[in-house]
Amino acid sequence: MSQARTHTPLWAKDELAEQLRGLADEPLLELRAEELRALADDLEADTRLSAWAEIELVETFARPESLTAAPPHRGARPGGPGALLDRLRSALRDQPARDRVLEATLGVLVFIPLLVTWFGLREAVRAYGELSRENPKEATRPFLQLWQTGFGGHLSSIGRFENMALTTVLLITLLVLLSLVHARVRAHVERAEADRHQQREHLLGRLASVLTRTQVTLAPHRNASPQQFAGELSKAASRLEALAARAEGSHKVLGVTASTVERATTALENAARALTAEVPKIQTGADRIEAAVRAGQAAATRAGTDSAAAARGIADEVKAAGATVEGALKALATAQQTLAAKSESVAQATERAAQALVASAGRTDAAVDGMREATERWDAAAAHWEDAAARLDTGIRALTGTHTTVPGPRHPSDAARNHGAHGVPVQVPPSEWVSDATPRDGAAG
Q: Do 391 and 295 touch, CB atoms closer than 8 A?
């Protein structure tokens, strides 16, 4: 009970109404004065409290816009000089207007000393020109001395150097004094602005405090208000409806996503089955390719060995034939040297040289035959390579499901016939292609 009595003055409606009227009398709250007074009257009379309870008092009233004072009323003023003077006096009483006038005066006074100085120089130059035309000898004196003496009466006393300097100093002094006054006024204005800002913040805090206590006092009326209850129920129903619509949309999206995932899973399973079915075919094709490559490597090895042996035999036979020819030539040279003494020996040597030449020719024919045989072996090796390529192509086509016709290997004996008499290739029609196992007519010869 004591605690309740302690808080009773804090929440008393009469005290809150009095504080609201005090706030309504503040000049800065002139725009909200009528509303605050109406709220105070309703608190004292205990009327329309349910309507006030539905309003967020702190958010509605405790705002910076509520502290804006109403603009002053400007009635019609009569014209004429008196009215103009009245306006001028009222403008000078206004602090911001005085500050603007002072700033404008300072901006103008900055250039006044410069204007005075240049005007004095212009007058001095004009007077000096007149003196030079009238008395050239007098014009030879120093310019400053002539300026100080008035250029022999051609310059007024106001335009003399000392008077111009004094005027400039006075204007600069006035400018400095006005700057000091302006700085002092600006500092005063800033302090006043800070005080006004602090006053506005303090008033806004007081308003928020009183309105908070008032809103707490009106809370029971707000909870018991049927209109407020219906409004809250309508808001809750609207939110629930929005949540239901959102949930329904999410359910539809989830269903579409599930269908898409199911179709993707089915397609993936079908692709996996197809890949599993193709694995044995791929393995068989790989085995065929491996066998074809091995056969090609073996054929290449055999062809290289046979070609090397044939080349060595041909080289030996050519070397022997060269040695025989060399010996025959030497014997022929010896026979020619002794031709005068031994004509019979020359005849015999000639006969032996002829026989040696015949033997050399025979060996040369044998060497040519050996080269022909080597060429045939090379052709047989090419046939083996073509056979390996055909097998490889067959394996690849079996994998891809297509077939390409590759010509069969040629018989090794076709090389000599295809290369002509001097090793020039001769085109052989496909009708004459045979395998290695088929004998050809006259192959032994």
A: yes
Q: Is 379 exposed, middle or buried (0-12, 13-18, 19+ CB in 10 A)?
A: buried
Residue 147 has a CB neighbour count (10 Å cut-off) of 22
Q: How far apart are CA 416 and CA 70, in angstroms?
A: 123
| Residue at 308: amino acid letter | A
What does the alpha-carbon distance between residue 435 and residue 415 come to, in Å, rounded to a whole number? 13
Q: How many helices (H) and strands (E) does the chain have?
A: 14, 0
Helix-helix angle 13-24:161-217, to 10 degrees: 160
DSSP 68: P
C-alpha span between 370 and 313 (Å, rounded): 8
Q: How many Cα atoms are found within 13 Å in the side-chain-facing hemisphere of 35? A: 13
The residue with greater pLDDT, 52 or 94, is: 52
Contact 46, 85 (CB under 8 A): no
- H or E element in which residue 351 lies: helix 343-400
Q: How far apart are CA 389 and CA 387, in angstroms?
A: 5
Model confidence pLDDT, tens digit, residues 134-178: 888 888 889 888 888 888 888 888 888 889 999 999 999 999 998
Here the tokens at position 220 are 């029971």
From the list 15, 74, 84, the residue with the least C-alpha distance to 43 is: 15
Does residue 367 sit in helix, strand or coil?
Answer: helix
What are 223-271's pLDDT values in tens digits? Answer: 555 665 666 778 888 888 888 888 888 878 888 887 887 887 888 888 7
Residue with the bigger pLDDT between 249 and 426: it is 249
pTM of the shown model: 0.37
Of 95, 106, 116, 63, the closest CA to residue 192 belongs to: 95
Question: Rounded to an integer, what distance in angstroms lies between the CA atom of residue 36 and that of residue 44?
Answer: 13
